[in-house]
Design goal:
This protein has a single domain, classed as Rossmann fold (3-Layer(aba) Sandwich), CATH 3.40.50. Helix content is 41%, strand content 23%. The chain contains eight helices and seven strands; from the N terminus they run H-H-H-E-E-H-E-E-H-E-H-H-H-E-E. It has a seven-stranded mixed β-sheet with strand order 3-2-1-4-5-7-6, sandwiched between helices. Helix 5 packs across helix 8. The chain starts with a helix and ends with a strand.
């Protein structure tokens, strides 16, 4: 537990440091692919939605207007940017500083949970996914846009070898096995679609918890 807490604090500090330039660093990928996929991921959602790792609020323009959105992030500076963006969009959203690995919400609080490029950074991804399973109602949807470790031997090994670079720059792992982690967390009704090679995936999960 102490190791996870230390990792969380370390990665939080990295995101606090990079928050002012985060959108600039990702602008190319956002224009090229992510913006289109965000819209597709979110356009069918309804009811109460939790976005885990809302960051600077890049998903906010794409939620249907009648969706009630709560966004959490462990970085205060990222949330500050999300608040300013929400104000510019005139988009109602509740933003809370919170750790995805230990959420303060009651069980079955949300109709859907959203993550986009988040589970590369959660220090204990299985713990975070178990929390998502807990706070999402039975039959609710978990929708994710995540990059994962390639299953191609050469590409996967290359991702392992280069992982230390983004990890030490801003706390993101490029070699997470998110599909396997979903199963370990008890989220087994999973559909995934490859969007770029077998690395960037659109994932949809129906929460069938007992």
């Amino acid at each position: 537990m102490t190791k996870t807490v230390d990792s969380t604090q370390r990665i939080r500090r990295r995101y606090e440091r990079i928050a002012p330039i985060y959108d600039f660093l990702e602008a190319g990928m956002e224009r090229g692919l992510f913006r289109r996929q965000r819209r597709r991921l979110l356009e069918t959602l309804s009811g109460s939605v939790l976005e885990v790792g809302i960051g600077t609020g890049k998903n906010l323009p794409f939620y249907p207007p009648d969706v009630g959105v709560v966004g959490i992030d462990f970085s205060r500076r990222m949330l500050d940017r999300a608040r300013r963006y929400a104000d510019r969009l005139d988009r109602p959203v509740e933003l809370i500083q919170m750790d995805a690995q230990a959420m303060a919400f009651q069980d079955n609080s949300f109709d859907a949970v959203v993550t986009t490029c988040v589970f590369c950074s959660v220090p204990d991804p299985v713990a975070g996914l178990k929390e998502i399973r807990r706070v999402c109602r039975r039959g609710g949807q978990v929708v994710m846009l995540e990059h994962v470790r390639s299953r191609k031997p050469v590409v996967g090994a290359l991702m392992d070898g280069l992982n230390f670079i983004p990890l030490h720059l801003y706390g993101a792992n490029i070699n997470r096995r998110t599909l396997e982690n979903l199963e370990r967390a008890g989220l087994t009704d999973v559909n995934s679609e490859d969007l770029w090679l077998d690395i960037l995936k659109r994932i949809q999960v129906t929460n069938g918890k007992a």
